[in-house]
Amino acid sequence: MEREKTYEKSFDVADIFGANVFNDETMQKRLPSKVYQKLKQSIEEGRELDLETADVIAHEMKEWAIEKGATHYTHWFLPLTGVTAEKHDSFISAPLSSGKVLMRFSGKELTKGEPDASSFPSGGLRATFEARGYTAWDCTSPAFVRQDAAGATLCIPTAFCSYNGQALDQKTPLLRSMQAINEQSLRLIRLFGNTHSRKVTPMIGAEQEYFLVKSENFMERKDLVYTGRTLFGAMPPKGQELDDHYYGAIRQRVASFMRDVNIELWKVGVTAKTQHNEVAPAQHELAPIYDKANIAVDHNQIVMHTLRRIASKHGLKCLLHEKPFAGVNGSGKHNNWSLMTDDGINLLDPGITPHENTQFLLVLMCILKGIHKHADLLRESAADPGNDHRLGVDEAPPAILSVFLGEQLEDVMDQLISTGFATHSIDGGKLKTGVRTLPDLAKDATDRNRTSPFAFTGNKFEFRMVGSRDSVAAPNIVLNSIVAEAFADACDVLENAEDFGLALHDLIKLYANEVRVIVFNGNGYSAEWEKEAKRRGLSNLKSMVDAIPALTEEQTVEMFKRFKVFTRAELESRAEIQYETYSKTIHIEARTMIDVAGKQIIPAVMQYTKMLAETVLVVEGVAGDASVQKEILQEVSALLKEAKKAVVALTEYTESAGKMSEGMERARYYYEEVCPRMEALRLPVDKLEMLVDKEIWPMPSYGDLLFDV
Ligand code: ADP
Ligand code: MG
């Protein structure tokens, strides 16, 4: 049923935007100017706040939050579970002798928290005797008040570390990597005579894809409830082949959901900007305007949380899994990345004639060099169990890391390689629209290629491997660090060069030659590319399990150590957590399949065979010929037998895997032994779904889920 609801009351977006954020404007208004200056300095220069200043800020923040209805505050952080964690404390103080309480919030409470860290994954970093973890305010990401069923809560974005400073979260290494890329970028632009910029920040725009299904359908699918994806399900007669959903008119129920999502996001300062239907039925996308990396990472978490929360209010469920439905497009997160100075210069802007812009060419070649050297690590940064179903299967993007540059830049690069000089740029030319009433557009010389995992799109790179459910922190930690390394190496050479111009020219040519192999402008989905990539010696890591070792390779450890982003111990712990996550996820999926097959599907099929058998008897008694009924009965019985056998095998292998000790071998076992047996069970069950009476089938079909929203 479509619920039509029109909003008569109009409102001004500018009024509500950021209304619940303790942003610069609010701080300036509410804080004594000395305190405000100190905080600004600490934000800009990364200096620690003294307790006295923190006390004043905390007090004002609390007063402001209470005006917004807040009763509690929470240090909001990103542990290695992939989702945010929070522990709520109310502002109340111990009762006074009068029996009354005061609302208190100190500088210490604002800047530091001590949650018990023992229940968060640490990959062995934190022995149980030092279970304490510390959260520290990331004052560069503003605090906000979230209003939901719990009332209103003051959320303070924080980093989460162990007692001796080891990172137990995504935020800490992200901030470290931002420092690294800032330092090395400044070195680089100084070489080109820029003395005015004081800071270089990675800017991120994370586009979020998701599916919406009806709550009541969701609740009837135990696989969705337990694992976030369907483990069984035959394709409906219609899928996405007509492409009629992509950019299609948005249905009323979904439109009203999107409106509420936008309002909630605007209130907490998330710049929700673009929304549209995606390729698959029931699939949608939301993109905010890009922001500083750490803020964009926090905002993406808020986006995912808000999508889920608001969906429930509309009788919907938001699926963030990378592959909720087999045979239908999966969901990803496009991570747009660029480097911006504090005075507004984008280092990835090629200018009008890129061959002349040598700084841009050096930046570009360094980025490519970083990707070439650390391709496996970058692939790993987008690895999660759900994403295995996208990368390297039938859809975007493949697991091979190549870079799309577009015609113009590829040509410039080839000139550099063959002659050492780039003397001209193919200009964009005019794109003939063929429609008289539309002007001819100046064609963007960097044409879009939707199949590339890493595409240059005008003045930014778009990394498209990231999974829809994953945080964008990991890919940006890697991107910032590998580019910082390439910048540092280039600066080491150029700072000591006698003839800067000549050294620069030689370096760009050298790098262009080195990285040419990863440049690919063609169709990344094609089988030819897979062959060609192999010939070029590029990796094709199909599974998360294949990618995890990249985290602890010597060159990874060296690089992260050099820029103080991760220690070896931190990397080893992360690898361990990744293996654990993979094993646990597959374990739950396998057990869910066994459960659903055993308790729901097999009993339903047996009921159907009984009905068929009775029909055969009755029909034979009356008409004599029950051959069709018998045939169906035989077919169903054969598939039932196959399914039962597959359940037995899956159970056996899942139990064996469950007994192994944590680590790489166990994860490998799940990938190589358990996953194929899950497939083997799915096959007969999906065939049965096509034969068994829909009235008897124990759960909503793909058709119900995808086309009835
Ligand atoms: P498309 O779907 O064509 O890729 P969208 O408009 O949906 O384009 O998303 C593009 C994303 O890239 C947006 O989040 C946008 O803010 C972001 N973006 C634009 N310019 C930059 C930039 N210089 N650096 C980082 N992100 C950017
Ligand atoms: Mg995009």
User: Tell me, what's the shape?
Assistant: globular
Strand percentage lies at 5-15%
* Portion in helices: 40-55%
Number of H- or I-type helical stretches: 22
Taking the alpha carbons of the first and last residues, their distance comes to: 8 Å
Q: How many distinct beta strands?
A: 17
Ligands and ions found:
adenosine-5'-diphosphate, magnesium ion
Give the assembly state of these chains: single chain
Give the mean pLDDT. 89
The largest sheet is: 9 strands, mixed
Flag low-confidence runs: 430-443
Radius of gyration: 28 Å
Q: SS-based structural class?
A: alpha+beta
Short description:
The protein is α+β, with helices and mostly antiparallel strands. Helices cover 47% and strands 13% of the residues. The protein has helices spanning 13-16, 24-30, 33-45, 51-67, 107-111, 171-191, 215-219, 222-227, 252-267, 293-313, 358-373, 375-381, 407-419, 473-495, 500-515, 527-535, 544-547, 554-562, 568-622, 627-659, 664-691, 702-707, and strands at 70-77, 85-90, 112-113, 133-137, 144-148, 151-162, 200-214, 272-277, 283-288, 291-292, 316-319, 333-341, 403-404, 430-431, 441-442, 454-456, 461-463.
Task: Explain this structure.
- With 709 residues, this protein is of the alpha+beta class.
- The chain is 47% helix and 13% strand.
- It has 22 helices and 17 strands.
- The strands form three sheets. Strands 7, 8, 9, 10, 11, 12, 13, 16 and 17 form a nine-stranded mixed β-sheet that branches. Strands 1, 2, 3, 4, 5 and 6 form a six-stranded mixed β-sheet that branches. Strands 14-15 form a two-stranded antiparallel sheet.
- Helix 9 packs across helix 10 (293-313).
- The protein is globular, with a radius of gyration of 28 Å.
- The N and C termini lie close together (8 Å).
- The relative contact order is 0.10.
